[in-house]
Amino acid sequence: MSVQIALLHRTEYRYERPLSLGPQWVRLRPAPHTRTPLISYALTIEPEGHFIHWQQDPYANYQARLVFPERTALFRVTVELIAEIEVFNPFDFFLDRYAEQFPFVYEKPLAQDLLPYSKPCALTPALAKRLDSMRSLRGPTLDCLVQFNQDLQRDILYTIRMEPGVQTPDQTLAAGKGSCRDSAWLLVCLLRHLGLAARFVSGYLIQLKPDLPSRDAASSLSGDFCDLHAWCEVFLPGAGWIGLDPTSGLLASEGHIPLACTPDPGGAAPIEGELEQGEVQFSHQMSVSRITQPPSIEKPYRDDQWQSILHLGEQVERVLVEGDVRLTMGGEPTFVSATDRESAQWHTEALGPGKRALGVDLIGQLKARYAPGGFFHFGQGKWYPGEQLPRWALSLYWRKDGVPCWPQSQWLADEKSGHLRHHDDAERFAKRLAKTLGLQSACVIPAYEDVFLVALAVGQIENRACEARRPTIAGAADRAANQHRQIATIVPVQLHLDVDGVLGADERALELLFEAGPVVGMDSIVPETRVGLRGTLIRTKHLHEAWREEASVRGDVPVPPAIVRAAQHQFELLLRLAKAGDLRLDGPAIHVVVDVRGALLGQHHEHLQRLVAVGEEHARHLRGVRREHHRGWPSIAPHAHHAALI
Q: Smallest Cα–Cα separation from 434: which of 489, 485, 367, 372?
């Protein structure tokens, strides 16, 4: 959304007596290449008895030549303009291929045109020292320019300097401070010595106060601001002139309105001319005001409007309460990282290195504020077409009466803790859990990747010449082919239910579901899928039949020989480890799956509060905490549960 602003700029010279003025040059009209749309512009000159001729200088800047036939004791220049300030992306351009990497050399015809902006200034020892550190930087051209600009902003302190003229680069470097024009001229000189065409820019800088204060208090504006400013422009093949502001360390944006762009600062003076010698009083005035402004996204209502809305809402609420009308509302707000807005994880990719960490941190803050006695459920969320896996979903549940649902939350893993875990930890956890439940240690079963399904999938993909998913599938096949590497440990159990279908209170009602033997995770060959969420777990006794049936149906699917050999090798290994016996399901089947993902030891199961309680006591044992009597659990509805325990 855009904001229309009115800018007033008045410069006044009062002389001690009427003086004779020579021709005066006024460069206070926005340059042709300004990216800020102008709605109107007016230049008023006093005294009225003068002649004005508009023209363009050799560098295409607008300038007004003024002639005063009579003596005058007052010379006043007033600029009034209306502009439309609308945010634009200063990086919205492409570079020619040969200029994408720094350093580069301009093509000869272009280099000839840029000669006025390529003449380097005198190379002094201080300037040479600065250039040595800059020449060591190599890489994408835009990245290098941003770095040069930011380094200068960091090293040169901005000061308001009322003395006329521009400091030399040596003076600015020696002092470590300067005005905007001093920093701009220093950057122009440095870029020219690096082989880049650069020019000095004089213009207006307009900054509008945001509706909400910035997170960086030091950079917050107390009000709308405008002033004369100076910066640098560098010519990039394919993009044209790109503005760099070393005062702020940023690229020139919608608030930078160029007035004059010249090879040297002297040609960009806002007002220049000769006059008869005499005393003068100088005054300067600038202001900016908003004319029209659409409702802001950050603050769409005035304070009085918002209070009226709240008052009306309270009236509606009273009516609803009197009528016992109960409403619920849901929504899906979208969050974007405040410090990493442009990375792919916030635009095109489902996951990313920082997205889950921020999500866990956010839901942790919500729990602390709204549901201190609640519990988390970290599981699968929406599955969008074309994506290999469902998105993860972080859920928070609590009781409205305030009774804690999860009294043992200290045993939940902290994903930011950095503790490294291995499959040995998962197996140790599962064996201890089985012992605590009164089950035989033989019930702890290793789980391996479904190498047979992987082999078929790889053959399908290669047969269809689909390159998009081949690296992922090939990686899964490599892992699956390693017969010494398991992906999880499983404790299969079954539960006895009472006549009301409620879980019995006696923990010893848990008993072994079937005989020990390696199992394979089915239904998914994407390695990021947790074993406990794969849908089907089958005994190895049935693998041979399943493999033969699958191969007979898809006999025309070619499978790479290396994958076939790996699959056959693991199949033989699993058959040797398997025990005879059919799969029995005498009650509700529960698989406690313990695996390792990232730095966490994860436990996956269905139904049970009591099983969770046992897991927590086991987690306490792993941390070396004395075993204590488990506190009672409040009654909550059975819910599929996934908790990460360390």
A: 489
